């Protein structure tokens, strides 16, 4: 039987989403792990992957795969706790001595940095370097990643980051160890904001233009040894990283090697065979066609399943016809055949129908289905009725952006077939995976609709699950998360109302209600929740996969000399 990734009991009740790791700064694990071994210090872990990372620069990149990579090379004030910690969903201090101290009015947050922090060149990391690195999020060209800093920290509308404007007016550095953030409004979850991947330090004056496209200045346990875009990345130890200052990252391997550009089927064949260095390899989820081949006791023992913490959805540009009409968007929700989508995605072990934005496993989820159909196979008659009500009974055509990924292409073909029943012609625009998120996050480049996915940015609440997709005030020219471009005053006000709640449990209930309110306007079509099965190499230890982002910092090898 395929094993499920184990989680602490506290985590099962919480909204799990991002990472998995373990606490403590030593170099040897105290016990077992999700892959049945005990990680030891040394050796090289190999990552086999289809696509390159979006960006080495954390101000630009912001998706599950690259976020996990960033955790190996960058540090911030806080971070997601280790996955094998008592509560892997907690936010814990990283470079800061403790979590932030808010002012009584909630408008300022103060952090004190640990002593002895250094970059990979040996230069010290102080509050000055942290303020500089964080302020890069406001650069109009570079700051296309996580929006949370820009959404919460006070800054003039014309502030354009350190290269164009200078020091950040909303961030104070009264001394080398202290940094103070001034917020636009109280935000009780601000510790989560500074755990985002773009809230990291860099030496003052570095990183302008494309400087970090092929290079990094590391603050974490590893630094870049070599990078051939689209082909390979090798990380080696950062000799200036001090484990005594890092209570989360274990950094067992001496090196990491990422092999890029492999077909999914090739990756699976290599993991199944487990020859040579592939005993020390990990990868993303296995392909649907591989699932039936994991039958032997040895493979069953290695395989690990992880539940879905993300939603796959089709976002529609509500500013352009025909998706500017709510009836058309509702018709799309009725018309899709989620059973067909499930089959296209590998069956019920790898895909479950989604009718809500917040997945079942995430805290705040509310069960509802505003656009029901028998067997989740779609209701073309109801969809046709809605189209006829707005004069589109003869159908229309639109272009759908998708990733160059076999599963996503199969999902898109399922949508094509379902919508053809209501005379809607879907043209597919296939985009390379490494540039997909940047493309659809640029409204001028995205077409009529896109299939993509969303995971919550932190685990303590559902506040990051729905709002980024529908808040009209976060629509940007680049790095846009509201790909539906819906800007509804009622939605915006409701977001503010719930965010102001200090009782986060009560707020989670409201986020579930908000999910249903948003879906009444149908800016997107929830398609699937996608649990996954992973097959690590037999010598991998400390591996606890996550469908949103697996923590690489606790992974090691049972026998560093093997492979």
From TrEMBL:
<feature type="domain" description="Solute-binding protein family 5">
    <location>
        <begin position="91"/>
        <end position="467"/>
    </location>
</feature>
<protein>
    <submittedName>
        <fullName>ABC transporter substrate-binding protein</fullName>
    </submittedName>
</protein>
<keyword id="KW-0732">Signal</keyword>
<dbReference type="InterPro" id="IPR039424">
    <property type="entry name" value="SBP_5"/>
</dbReference>
<comment type="similarity">
    <text>Belongs to the bacterial solute-binding protein 5 family.</text>
</comment>
<dbReference type="InterPro" id="IPR023765">
    <property type="entry name" value="SBP_5_CS"/>
</dbReference>
<dbReference type="InterPro" id="IPR000914">
    <property type="entry name" value="SBP_5_dom"/>
</dbReference>
<dbReference type="GO" id="GO:1904680">
    <property type="term" value="F:peptide transmembrane transporter activity"/>
</dbReference>
<dbReference type="GO" id="GO:0015833">
    <property type="term" value="P:peptide transport"/>
</dbReference>
<dbReference type="Pfam" id="PF00496">
    <property type="entry name" value="SBP_bac_5"/>
</dbReference>
<dbReference type="GO" id="GO:0043190">
    <property type="term" value="C:ATP-binding cassette (ABC) transporter complex"/>
</dbReference>
<feature type="signal peptide">
    <location>
        <begin position="1"/>
        <end position="29"/>
    </location>
</feature>
<dbReference type="InterPro" id="IPR030678">
    <property type="entry name" value="Peptide/Ni-bd"/>
</dbReference>
<dbReference type="GO" id="GO:0042597">
    <property type="term" value="C:periplasmic space"/>
</dbReference>
């Amino acid at each position: 039987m395929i094993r499920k990734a184990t989680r602490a009991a506290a985590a099962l009740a919480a909204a799990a989403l991002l990472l998995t790791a373990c606490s403590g700064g030593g170099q040897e694990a105290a016990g077992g792990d999700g892959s049945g071994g005990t990680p030891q210090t040394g050796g090289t872990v190999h990552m086999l992957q289809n696509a390159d990372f979006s960006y080495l620069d954390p101000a630009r990149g912001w998706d599950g795969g690259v976020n996990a990579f960033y955790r190996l090379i960058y540090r911030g004030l806080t971070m997601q706790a280790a996955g094998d910690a008592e509560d892997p969903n907690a936010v814990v201090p990283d470079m800061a001595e403790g979590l932030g101290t808010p002012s009584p009015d909630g408008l300022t947050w103060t952090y004190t940095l640990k002593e002895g922090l250094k970059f990979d060149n040996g230069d010290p990391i102080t509050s000055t370097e942290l303020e500089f690195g964080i302020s890069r999020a406001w650069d109009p060209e570079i700051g296309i990643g996580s929006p949370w800093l820009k959404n919460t920290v006070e800054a003039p509308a014309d502030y354009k980051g350190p290269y164009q404007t200078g020091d950040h007016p909303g961030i104070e550095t009264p001394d080398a160890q202290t940094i103070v953030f001034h917020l636009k409004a109280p935000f009780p979850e601000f510790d989560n904001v500074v755990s985002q991947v773009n809230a990291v330090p860099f030496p003052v004056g570095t990183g302008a233009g494309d400087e970090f496209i092929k290079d990094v200045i590391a603050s974490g346990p590893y630094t870049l040894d070599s990078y051939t875009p689209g082909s390979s990345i090798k990380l080696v130890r950062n000799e200036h990283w001090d484990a005594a200052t890092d209570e989360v990252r274990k950094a067992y391997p001496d090196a990491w090697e990422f092999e890029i550009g492999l077909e999914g089927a090739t990756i699976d064949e290599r993991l199944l065979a487990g020859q040579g260095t592939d005993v020390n390899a990990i990868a993303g989820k296995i392909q649907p066609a591989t699932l039936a081949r994991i039958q032997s006791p040895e493979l069953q023992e290695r395989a690990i399943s992880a539940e879905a913490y993300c939603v796959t959805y089709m976002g529609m540009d509500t500013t352009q016809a025909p998706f500017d009409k709510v009836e058309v968007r509702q018709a799309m929700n009725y018309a899709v055949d989620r059973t067909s989508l499930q089959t296209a995605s590998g069956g019920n072990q790898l895909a479950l129908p989604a009718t809500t934005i917040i997945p079942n496993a995430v805290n705040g989820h509310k069960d509802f289905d505003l656009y029901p159909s028998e067997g989740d196979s779609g209701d073309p008659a109801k969809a046709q009725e809605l189209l006829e009500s707005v004069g589109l009974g003869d159908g229309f055509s639109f272009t759908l952006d998708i990733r160059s990924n076999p599963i996503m292409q199969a999902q898109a073909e399922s949508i094509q077939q379902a919508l053809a029943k209501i005379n809607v012609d879907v043209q597919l625009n296939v985009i390379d995976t490494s540039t997909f998120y940047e493309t659809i996050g640029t409204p001028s480049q995205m077409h009529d609709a896109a299939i993509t996915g969303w995971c919550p940015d932190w685990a303590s609440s559902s506040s990051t699950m729905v709002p980024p997709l529908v808040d009209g005030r976060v629509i940007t020219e680049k790095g846009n998360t509201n790909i539906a471009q819906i800007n509804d005053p009622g939605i915006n006000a409701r977001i503010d109302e719930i965010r102001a709640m200090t009782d986060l449990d009560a707020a989670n209930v409201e986020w579930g209600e908000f999910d249903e309110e948003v879906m009444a306007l149908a800016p997107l079509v929830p398609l699937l929740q996608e649990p996954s099965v992973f097959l690590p190499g037999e010598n991998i230890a400390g591996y606890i996969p996550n469908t949103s982002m697996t923590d690489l910092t606790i992974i090691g090898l049972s026998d560093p000399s093997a492979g």
